[in-house]
Amino acid sequence: MSLCGSVSALYLNLQSSKISMGSVLAFRSGESMGNTLRIPFKKRSSKGAACPLQVVCIDYPRPELENTVNFLEAASLSASFRSASRPTKPLKVIIAGAGLAGLSTAKYLADAGHKPILLEARDVLGGKVAAWKDDDGDWYETGLHIFCKYRCIFCFLGLLHLVFHFTILKVVALFLKSLIVGAYPNVQNLFGELGINDRLQWKEHSMIFAMPNKPGEFSRFDFPEVLPAPLNGIWAILKNNEMLTWPEKVKFAIGLLPAMLGGQPYVEAQDGLSVKDWMRKQGVPDRVTEEVFIAMSKALNFINPDELSMQCILIALNRFLQEKHGSKMAFLDGNPPERLCMPIVNHIESLGGEVRLNSRIKKLELNEDGTVKSFLLNNGNTIEGDAYVVATPVDIFKLLLPEDWREISYFKKLEKLVGVPVINVHIWFDRKLKNTYDHLLFSRSPLLSVYADMSVTCKEYYNPNQSMLELVFAPAEEWIACSDSEIIDATMKELAKLFPDEISADQSKAKIVKYHIVKTPRSVYKTVPNCEPCRPLQRSPIQGFYLAGDYTKQKYLASMEGAVLSGKLCAQSIVQDYELLRTLGQRKLTGASIH
Question: Pathway listed for it (predicted)?
């Protein structure tokens, strides 16, 4: 298998799973002689003395996903667009929103021979993965986007489950399943279809958690590549005893028994309970929630376990148990608009589609029968098509929702779906921080969710002399209206606990060179209890009108994978409705027009 040509990852060869203040740096693969570089390294021992360690600089290969059931299923759906009968008269489909859902919808419609016209309100592609370049040429992003991140959050939960409650038969069954199941298959297929697989920088198969009671130290879960799931997970948790005691693990595992025995009906019935309420109902100690589920809930949905629906956890757990590479993570090798979104745009345009920026939708204009007549833009122009898609976040769509549709059950249920606020913080320091790793880190902080030193983890952002930390500030409900300086002050106080030898809140140690803060008042939908029945199908009850977005009904949660899959399902619905859309008298089949 070919190795990823990207920033080289460094493997710290430790016998213990606990990491102290050692530094893990990154090198561009071109700076090493070949694929491996060995360098001397000093790590502080528990007594403060320096002791030599061996740091190995390697590229981590892409996981083998092509023969897994989920990957093949996603590939089959992709192929169905390319192999579909060429339409005698291609449909002009007007799509609002050039995030991943809108881009995906347009891409697969173009593959099927239709002409999508994708309208983006802003001057930047990507929606929730948008990014901007500052005057110094540095990029700052809407969020810290990790491929397969959400799957890794549920790894810890799944491991505890496995250790105590799998019989030999179940282990064998899962062993077989692990050979045929993969994670984030639609995103992986999309990268392959665009020829950009080499733009994902895969990291070592580990999870790294900060230890709040031991400032500056981290706890690792390392998954042996030689073992299949679930054996690799069992090994990882058996080697780590720092986050939960064995009695706590046992009580937690016993609490999960009803989910094991009850199957999918039980899982669906838990949508009415929050994670915290479910844990207490099952007799699971509160410390389990504090040690595990706060980090899990914030990384998944930017909220705490007293708000997150337990169904969300159990759905992801069931999926994790079948995925060997489910917890393996990758970073994009640069900014998302150029490295991910532009290849999709180029593909769409090469097949006759269009993508237009600075085209904000002001209103959905209706025909007398309640169907869509046109999209009215902010500049006063209208655009007409054969079919219409809104691929914006749910909160934006609700602002555009025509009054005549508001009492229709399909649309009325959307009132329950509300985006969660999130803040993304970028801080450039005047030096290279030593206590960082070429990986995603779980802060387990009251204010911070996950973070990474992007000068280490991302090829385009690589800097050998200065660190740039990108951090997710969540929950952000009480902070979204605060000033940038207040958010930075609060962030620095938390960083002082993660980097006690290098960062202080008053900047008497590492100093801030600059920072950028991106506030998203309404991000992914808030997965609170009883919201699952409110998620709409992509085909609406209004003929010729469709929805796409990670909030719509699809088997993945609010994530990049969910957005991409929703776009494919939306495109599939339109292709299936081709004959109906052709015969509808509400539109001219000669194509869309702008007035």
Answer: Carotenoid biosynthesis; lycopene biosynthesis
Comparing CA positions, the residue from 86, 62, 336 lying closest to residue 225 is 62
Q: Describe the crossing of helices 231-238 and 155-165 by its angle, rounded to 10 degrees.
A: 90
Cα 539 from Cα 41, distance rounded (Å): 58
421: left (phi over 0), alpha (psi -120 to 50) or beta: beta
* Nearest to 424, CA basis, from 373, 484, 378, 380: 484
Q: Output DSSP code: residue 308.
A: S
How many CA within 13 A on the CB side of residue 46?
4
Token code pair at residue 496: 């002082």
Q: Which helix (H) or strand (E) holds 173?
A: helix 168-178
Percent share of the chain, pLDDT over 70: 79
- Backbone dihedral angles phi then psi of residue 227, each to the nearest 5 degrees: -105, 140
**Contact indicator for 156, 234 with CB cutoff of 8 Å:** no
Give pairs for 399-405: CB < 8 Å, separation 24+: 400/96, 400/361, 400/363, 400/364, 401/364, 402/364, 402/366, 404/366, 404/370, 405/370, 405/542
**Measured between alpha carbons, how far is 539 from 388 in angstroms, rounded to an integer?**
11
Other beta carbons within 10 Å of 401: 17
Write phi, then psi, for 485 (nearest 5 degrees): -65, -35
Token readout for 278 is 């479910």
Q: Give the residue with greater pLDDT, 153 vs 63.
A: 63
Determine the pLDDT at residue 251.
83
Q: Average pLDDT of 104-114?
A: 98
Q: Is the dihedral of CA 580, 582, 585, 586 positive or negative?
A: positive
Mean pLDDT of 386-403: 98
| 246: CB partners within 8 A, 6+ apart | none
Q: Report the sign of the C-alpha dihedral through residues 245, 251, 254, 258, in that order.
A: negative
92-96/387-390 β-pairing: parallel
- How remote is the C-alpha of 42 from its chain's centroid? 35
Dihedral pair phi/psi, residue 491, rounded to 5°: -65, -40
pLDDT at 53 over 70: no
**Burial class of residue 296, CB neighbours in 10 A (0-12, 13-18, 19+):** buried
- Decide: 142 and 304 in contact? Cβ < 8 Å: no
* Predicted confidence band of residue 142 (pLDDT cuts 50, 70, 90): very high
Backbone angles phi, psi at 7, to 5 degrees: -60, 130
Instruction: For the chain, give the mean pLDDT.
Output: 82
Place of tokens 């930390």: 469
Phi, psi of 390 (to 5 degrees): -110, 115
Cα Rg, the chain, nearest whole Å = 24
**Amino acid symbol at 282:** Q
Residue with tokens 């019935």: 269
Quickly list DSSP for 537-555.
Answer: PSB-SSTTEEE-STTSS-S
Residue 163 CA: distances (Å) to CA of 271, 290, 550 = 26, 21, 33
In one-letter notation, the amino acid at residue 299 is A
Reported residue count of the chain is 595
Cis-peptide into 521, omega within 30 deg: no
